[in-house]
Amino acid sequence: MSVVPKLATQMKDDVLTGVNTVLEAQELDIYYGDFLAFRKANLKVPEKKITALIGPSGSGKSTLLRSFNRMNDLVPTARVDGRILFHGENLYDRDIDPVAVRRLIGMVFQKPNPFPKSIYENVAWGAKINGYKGNMDELVERSLRQAALWDEVKDKLRQSGLSLSGGQQQRLCIARCIAVQPEVILMDEPASALDPIATLRIEDLMRELAENYTILIVTHNMQQAARVSDITVFMTMGEGRAGEIIEIGPTRELFTSPKDPRTEDYITGRVG
Q1: Residue 106, Cβ neighbours under 10 Å: how many?
Q2: Between the chain's N and C termini, which has fewer beta carbons within 10 Å?
Q3: pTM here?
Q4: Do the domain assignments include residue 130?
């Protein structure tokens, strides 16, 4: 069966009235062996918005993020209870192909990880192995333009992707993700390894990408979350060291008028 019917029933988001929910975690528990890493996640991710996951180290931000495209499946001891819905379809049903899930829900990692191939091949590779039949040159150019990298690399497409600067490599990885034509992009601290100028470039790019893609980002940088996201999710480490969601809200509201004292303590720096 197809991973997701494109015409599936659309749900309404409770935080942004009238905005469709693309992804939804329902009562999601995430385990590594017997260890409960995340407890009872309930989260709706709105369409073509940026949702930021913030919280102290060890609160399960990356663990939760990776559950949305089944990257945790690559950890032998990982398992989940509960559901993650993509347009209403449970991504953890037995007949769902996790590789197909990752084509629709792409991932950009903390550290740029271009392939040891040319810039062109870095972008084209995913499309090739997925059987893309269109004009590859046009796809590569379009993806690099969307990643705000085309003007910098158009005359050196046959050079190694590893020859680029760190910020350029991360934008190349974003172009590689876009080329597979996902609907959602997951970003795990995509600017943490970059200098301030490259970081701002990535932040500007995220806002541009949100016009066409749904973005879910993990960040340790609260200023970054405040600058780029529409929705912020605060989480912390709870009982038994399990991560748990404490508060969800529109970013400006959560940062200026948090409802939970634990959120206020974190964003004001009283706890970290």
Answers
A1: 23
A2: C
A3: 0.90
A4: no
254 is a domain residue: yes
pLDDT tens column, 9-47: 233 344 456 679 999 999 999 999 999 999 999 999 999
Task: Return all residues near 12 (Cβ < 8 A) that are at least 6 apart.
Answer: 18, 19, 20, 21
CATH of the domain at 217: 3.40.50.300
Q: Hey, what amino acid is at 74?
A: L
- The total of structural domains in the chain comes to 1
pLDDT for the residue 269: 85
Instruction: Tell whether 60 is covered by a domain.
Output: yes
At 126, list the tokens: 């995913």
263 is in which domain, residue-wise? 11-112+182-267
Q: Which residue shows structure tokens 């974003």?
A: 174
Q: What are phi and psi of 239, to 5 degrees?
A: -60, 135
**Euclidean distance between the first and final Cα of the chain, in Å?**
45
Across 100-170, the runs of DSSP E, i.e. the strands, are 105-108
In a domain, 26, yes or no: yes
Nearest to 48 by CA among 211, 165, 252, 220: 211
Read off the pLDDT of residues 195-208 as tens digits, 9 standing for 90 and up: 999 999 999 999 99
pLDDT at 73: 92
3 state DSSP class of 171: helix
